[in-house]
Amino acid sequence: MNWRSTTFRFAGLVFLLQLAGAALLLGIVHQLTQNQIRGEARARAEALRDALLPHYRQRGFAVLARAVAAQAGPGKAAGAVVLLADRDGHAVAGNLAAWPPSVPPDAPAQTIELFRIGHEASEQMYLVATPLADGRLLTGHVVESEQRFTVILEEAMASAFAVAVALAAFAAWISARLIVRKLAATVGTARAVAAGDLDQRVPAEGGDDAFAALGDTINAMLDRIAALMNELKIATDGLAHDLRSPLTRLRSTLERALLASDGEMARAAIGRAIEEGDRLLAMLDTALRISRAEAGLGREHLVDTDLSALIADMVELYGPIAEDRGFAIAADAAPGLRARVHRELLGQAIANLIDNAMKYGAGRILLAARETGEGVAISVGDEGPGIPEALRPTALRRFGRLDAARTEAGAGLGLALAAAVARLHGGTLRLHDNRPGLRVELFLSGHAEPVPASTSPQARGRGG
Hints:
Layout: H1 6-59, H2 61-71, E1 80-85, E2 91-94, E3 110-114, E4 123-132, E5 135-142, H3 144-194, H4 210-260, H5 264-294, E6 303-306, H6 307-324, E7 328-333, E8 338-341, H7 343-360, E9 364-371, E10 376-381, H8 392-396, H9 414-424, E11 428-433, E12 438-444
EC number: 2.7.13.3
Domain HAMP: 177-230
Keywords: Kinase, Membrane, Phosphoprotein, Transferase, Transmembrane, Transmembrane helix, Two-component regulatory system
């Protein structure tokens, strides 16, 4: 799971909230327990003090000393701590050997560790000091067992907190998995549609939550897209038929005019008009091929193809043309490299890349094919000036032409068609620096989902 993803952040939030809740609950339990222990100890110490002070007020210090001695004697309340001392802190009566130096006569109640007379080990005691006119009184209660219980409770809380951490992590994981599972069908449908299957829809799970609303909205959107794509197919097919006929008739008329013309200038002008007509027909045909490929039309024509042989055929076909233009063209493909491709469209795309390399590149043109972990990569590289990275998106757009390319004939559709063919095969058009020159790579995946044209981060190239 990507730590930057929304799902991870949601899981982290669930984990932190669960952890904070457990920590708050354990902290409250610990604080309440401590308050209860201190409260009971203070109540006992003050009750003992309140039982002894009337003796002092009614009969004086000596009577109080006898009462303290009796209270410290055997058979009295277990855990009681009492000490009567004179003004100088010397013990007069009680079960402590001396007044604790750390406890002033007017000190607030506190817990300290002392030895009681007749006990071999020190004990935790909660003590309340009371100053008298001719001495001082110390009353309290042993809280050793309570303190041991507190330690056990703290250890139990530490164990409980560790369990809470594990449960919080499990709850976060379950929450993240639930979201992923809820969205899996939606993501799968979106990927299938991106691959060209416009008949896919998000399965209806019922319910009245945000996930159900999302699925219904996406299905409604896909219904609309499917309707628009069907209208586009009808419109483009009709456009192709409607435009080709008059353009073909126009070319035929120009050819007859060329044969009937006697003037050299007129014949040259008519020849240029015929060339422009041919160029317009080629642009129309290429634009229609791009639209149909981006719509996913043509997957039914994917066939198992020997790409090594296809590469060799392309090099053989373009070898003489390249030599006439001062280029050297070579192939680099392992024998027996095969894939399911649309042979006609792929051949057109490779031809466009070679034509671009001869128009704008220089030196040696290398046509290569290699197998990758997820598919096949076919590349065409040259040793020309290349294209600055900032201008590559422009070169890839339909009819996008760079300033350096405007001196050459072309419509800016070559790489747009190559990118559409790559997406038809579930891949992308990638650009690499050939050092020097440019290497344009068609990545074809027989099983990977295609990357939409608007979101492909590596779809770059030159128009041609």
